[in-house]
Amino acid sequence: MTDPYLLSANDDAPVPPASADRIDKLARRMHVSRRLLEDMPPETLDRMEQSAAHMKAREETWGDLADSIAEKLTAAGFRRHDPSGQRGGFWLSMWDDGVILAWSTTEYSGDMVSPFEKTVEHAMLPALEQILQATGFTARIIPEEEDNGGDIRVTGWQGQAAKAVAEQ
Q: Which 3 state secondary structure label does DSSP give 165?
């Protein structure tokens, strides 16, 4: 009789550890602890590197626009939402198709949505859309049936065109 453990000895071959240099670079790019990455399989690290590259591309494409939005809304008296600090206000995220602007109240954390939060969002998002449009941004509320439905997608700003011409 054959010992089943002898037959399966190579099934779980050890995965070679990722290089220290690779882990250091990825930890810095993803803003995570090096320790978190040390025991991850190489294919997971590959996916994380792809994600980091994608995030960098989004930032390069939409970062200036996001900064302009934050500058204008802050100047108008709106506060930027800080999920790990003072909550409430606008928050921005960069996607492939533009900068997404959403609103959060101070009453609830991000994973809880109350009728109050929905009421405030229902009033704030159209108001923010109008403010952005009035200050030269190309902004539209995203239809409910799309991803990020109800939030605002911003895809441009007239001030950027003027700035680019002035720099030439």
A: helix
Q: Residue range 51-79: average pLDDT?
A: 88
Tens digits of residue pLDDT in 153-163: 999 998 765 55
Question: Which residue in 28, 154, 47 sits closest to 91, CA to CA?
Answer: 154
Q: Is pTM beyond 0.70 here?
A: no
Instruction: Write the DSSP string, 72-110.
Output: HHHHTTPPBP-TTSS--EEEEEEETTEEEEEEE-SSS-T
Q: Residue 15: pLDDT band by 50, 70, 90 thresholds? A: very low
Q: By the 8 A CB rule, do 105 and 117 touch?
A: yes
112: tokens are 């809880």
Measured at the CA of 117, the angle between CA 154 and CA 134, to 5 degrees, comes to: 30
Asked if 57 contacts 75 with a C-beta cutoff of 8 angstroms, the reply is no
Residues 6+ apart with CB under 8 A from 142: 100, 148, 149, 150, 151, 152, 153
Q: Please tell me the predicted confidence (pLDDT) of residue 87.
A: 80
| Mode of pairing for the β-strands spanning 89-95 and 98-104 | antiparallel
